[in-house]
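Continued from yesterday's entry.
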Amino acid sequence: METLANNAAKTTDPLDELAKAHVISLISALGGPDHAIPNAPYILGDDALGCLKDLKLWIKMFDEKHNRLDVARVISETNLVTEDLITIINNWQEAGRPKGTHYRIVLACLELLVPLSWPLLLEGSRNTLATNRHKSHIETAQRGYRRAFLAQPKLLYSIVSIALPSVATPKRDRSSREEAIIRLALYFFRNILIIDRENPGNDSRDGRNDAIIAFSKQNIFKFVTMLSGDSEFSGLFIVLVDLLYNLVRGVDPANLFGAQPIDDVKPADAEETGVDRKRWLSLEEGYEKSKARMTRHNRFGTMTSLVVNKTDRLTISGQHGLSSSASSMDSIDALKKPRASGGRGRRKVMPDEPEKPVRLTVEAKAELRIFVEDFIDNAFNVLMVNFRKEIERESDRVGEEQKLQYLYLSSWFMSAERQRQKEHPNQTQGFGLIASVLDHRSLIIVMRLLQNAVERREMQKISYSMTCFHNILLIAAAMQTGDLISDQEIAENMVSRLFYEEAMLNILAHMPTVLKGQGVLMLQICCELTVLILKVLEDYSKNTKMYIKSKARTRKSTKRKLTMVANGHDSVLASVKVEQAKSAAGIDKGIDEQIDNDGIDDQIDDLSDKFGEHDDEEEEAVAVAHERAFDFARFQSQFMTQATVDMFRTVFLAWRELDSTQIKHIVGFFHRVFFKCEEEFLLYRIDFMDMLYKSLDPRTGIQPYKPARKEVENFMRHYMRRLERMLEQRPALYIELLFTKMGDTMFFMKHGYDDEQKKKRKRTKIMHLHKDEDQDIERLSDVEPATKPKPMSIVSPSNLATTSSSSASHRGNATEVLGAGPDVLLSDIFNDFVLPETGTGLHSRENSMLTA
């Protein structure tokens, strides 16, 4: 087979002829209908089992090993799946499922069906010319396979029957081969679902609806629930999660358990006002008049010329520019495309549709709802606990795709249970049926996955993590408002655990910056999460005193030893405490109160490293965690940034795709920024005003029957009123409306005067003379020396003894110099040392190196 693959690679023929002849001969020897007998029953060949094994070997050794699809292409052209394999399995089921050779034959058929229906993921080394040549043909064949599978009334049940003997075997007696048989059946059902998702172009009849109905009628859902709810099948949980993920992906739990919200849909029989009725009658009358003179010829070749500024002209093609000048300008604006920002290192933008929404029929929706309710009641906790343990132990079987599936399923089933509790509250158990994704270990997993995704900028994982986090908070809010006291206590514990780490709060606060430039759907998820976090923490901090854990860095040693080496003669200057080292660094007492302790320690470390060596006792940086009271105002201020406002503005611009609840949440955040936090200058921008104006446009804005329109109108009324008053107080705001506000600009607009800038640190340079080499050492100083160093005399090797006596006096007064304050610098100690053959001091950067 290796020789055949090499020969096929050398030819330009899409199929290798020799391999095609071998495969066709095996298919012919497998069997076929006997037309000599009435009804032409299917008759197996003399060595049908051997033919099936040889076909499996060809797929493994030719296609998979050499990265080709020739054998799969030949099998699809010969209709082996639809005319032979399906028929053999159906005949075995009708014959009473005999054991022995017949069972081995149907098992071999299943071993062929799974690789033939496996989705094509041509990535990396699989993405070659040989595989892409057959990709479209194989995908078309797989869609035909799926239609044939779902058209058979008992085929899926027969696949379950093949796996039942292995399922009935106790775990201690079950072999790896029997577990592989169960896994084959589950992969077969997974392939049916994933073919529907991966291969576009199917109509609604061939979509998810047929698969759900077939799974329900042939008891596949019961089979999956039974395996998921039994801990004996712990080795199959990854396959089960994959199957469930492809089953519910794209299905909205709100549509599955609740009715569609009707507040955004205009009722068909709603009474119209007199103005609306007159408007529609006038439109109809005008249409009837124009209908008489309309022909199929005057719909082509329309060109409209629009005069701009009395000199320029804009030409518009089409009849949409004939009604008014406003519609003409809208047509021009629709043709504009934003330019992509250039430069390297641009962020990878996630597509706007991470998963396509699935529209279920009434029958499919009812069947799926029954399965979901049964699964939550009997199997959900067992499955998610065992799968979470696989993630915790970092099993080799759990990859990045499986982590995404865990986040998605946790979020989806939490949303489904919350919708079900709205209709029929569970007064006895509450949300205990989904407790496996609400305990502290699951919360740790979700927070860890979100943190890792943010660090690696994995946008899809960030999206799923935010959705899961959002649903956890919704469950906590629902439990707090419930009647069960136990649920209320659990909800308080969940909130305190979710927001206990200060690092997690910082990640959530900086999420708008991380998602800058992403699609609208991604930003919409972040907006919903931000609004909910602020609401939950605000309510929780009012009723309960909340503590968070933050980490700070401390030092073990408290002394430094500064050593000076000059031409081989060690000169110990002093052994000082931390306060004296701070004084030597030039840190003033007033400035010391404003600088963070960590920054001071860093300056001391730099000073100690550059001027000398540490003590015998090594100092270590130790991260110490301490608790402090949670300040909601401080946390809320982290969201009052331009990046967060831009994110909400970007989502609000898509008001046509948003419902009233989402629009109200966005307007509520603007209200929080404008009134509660009094950061209104973040919203004083031309593009923000243009957004509000367009959203209330009677033609293209938010429809009048939506309740959210009133919220936008009220906000815009207060916004413009305060803007007029602020323009009178701050005339400079006329200019600042055009630009993004910086920090100093925001302070000036608020208070009317500039903020006092901190003094910039200036660098002072000292020469460290060493026996073998010379080094330039720089340190930071907050103030300049009061007096400049005096001119220094030239030092030569001959008069080194004279200089040594001078330096000895400095050694004696080193402690006094270091403790004298910021006006005396360490460089003054060496004012008698100058560079050889130069007359300049050590403070000159140009002459800072010794000459040979």
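--- second protein ---
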Amino acid sequence: MMRRLLRLHVFLCCLGLALPFCPSQCTCVSHGRTEGAGSRSVLCNDPDMSDVPVNVPVDTIKLRVEKTAVRRIPNEAFYYLVELRYLWITYNSISSVDAASFYNLKVLHELRLDGNLISVFPWESLRETPRLRTLDLHNNRLSSVPTEAIPYLLNITYLDLSSNKLTTLPSDLMDIWPPFNGQPASSNSSQKVVLGLQDNPWFCDCKISKLIELCRMTDSALVFMDLFLSCAAPDNLAGVLFQRAELENCVKPSVMTSATKITSTLNSNVLLRCDATGTPTPNLYWTTSDGSPVDNTVQESPGDGIRWSIMSLHGIEYKDAGNYSCKAKNFAGTAAATISVSIAGSASTTVPPEPGGGTAGAAQVVTSTPPTDVSNPPPILSTAPPRTSTPPTNPKKPKIPPGNGSQKGSSLKLNKNPPTGGNGKKLAADEKSRKSDPSQSVKDLRIVEEMTDSAVLLWAAGGLPNDAPLTVVFSPYDEDDTKRTIETNAGSGKVLLDGLSPGMRYSVCLVAKGTSAAKDPCIDFYTLDNVEDGGQNQFLIILTGVACVLVLPLIAFLIYKILALYCKGNSSEEDELENDSYVKFETISMKQRTLNSHPTELWGRRPTNDSERMLLCSRSSMDSQMTYKSEGSRFEYLC
């Protein structure tokens, strides 16, 4: 009997320990068990609560701590809640979150920390939550999202960062979502990502250009809570919506290579080069076909917006054959170009041109170790890229930035061993050039149907098979840095060159891959002038001629009238002066008296001669001049 009572007591004690304990400041609600998992939810909303609750039932799947005085989430605060799926710690006073706060929450699906005072969030704390899909951090004080946070956001499908102090986001963050991650935008709603970024003081520059581009997309896997995001800075874009913002100094990169396929020999050295442009200046990196990075590279930027890179393969083996991708990346986006490397038969070195040589891609020059018997030289496979008709220059060593000792392997290494027999000063490449067969190249190269923006190139296959690959290289005359290529075959006989500029001179060359022709055929041609522009110019010339015909006679008539008035004015003034200033007057003197003279004729009148005429001035009218003097007469003055 006593033994049975003891067993019953032990059973009741164990049953009491098994019953869950609910914290005094919380409310626990049990929903039973579903499929062996706990279904208990706990709500803690006591305003006097200052610490994260402990002794929460271990079968809790949802914990809510709301509107309390909790200021900090300590390390391993919920480590024993192994079944916790929903953790809401909202609208508290939390300003500090430790790096191990969410330790051991392996099945946590939803984490909400909105309405707190968090200024720095420990993104590495999400390492312990591999199944997290919802992260809500809105209405906090976050000022930045570091690049280190990106790996922990790859599986997030609901991210709310609204109502914070964010001014920018890392450009790489946009690369985890379509279309920047290389995946097409899906219309399946279950695969869409919800993103909240509104109510932040965004600084609109090239760093968030991808975000602005996402806002402009109509069909995207990214759904914005508020699509009408706007710029807060700089001043010229303040208040402008993302959809209408025009960013300055922001251009996506582009990658250029002149050769897409290179064939080299076993144990040879190959240098691959690519050039990229973009603003800001893009960075270049190489990867293999499986995506693995390549370390033996060197790159340099000769100027703003330009960068080139060289990758070296030393003593290549069969395992080195494959595709190598040169990728360029800046804040505005990414671009890539692929070069295929294959293995052939003799020792060779593939050499890029001088970095400042002005070509858009890599140029390869093949050399080999001269044999002792030059009468039977080994076969050599040329991988030279398209060349223009200008004389080639001697290849130089690529410029290697100083202080990068690990990249010295990419320097050009030419064979300096002298030959032991025959004409020792002749390289194998010279022998190949001397023995080249001119018949193994295209013939009758000509341009027809020249238009303002296109032209048609015709040729005859000559000794080449119809399926022989050809590369058409064309560019404006003496502008090798803007070369463009078109892949075709010898049997096609023609190709359309489009995208040309009107009224310009172009050079075009045909390169037959794998042939021994000494010189690639090239030809120059001109595109037609723009007809519309010519018509406008002709109309302006006619209008100018008509204006000259009408205006010039009018100008001549006006000049004639002015000169006539001027001459007439001078002559009339002289006539008036002569009429008004000169008078004819007579000299009056006493007549000599005689006995028979009449007493009334006492005075005699005599006209004055020219020498006696005087100019009378109105200003001297008070004066008098002596007009005549004779013997026996008195002086007379007349005014």
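The two ends are 180 Å apart (CA to CA). The longest strand covers residues 269-279. Will compare against the first tomorrow.
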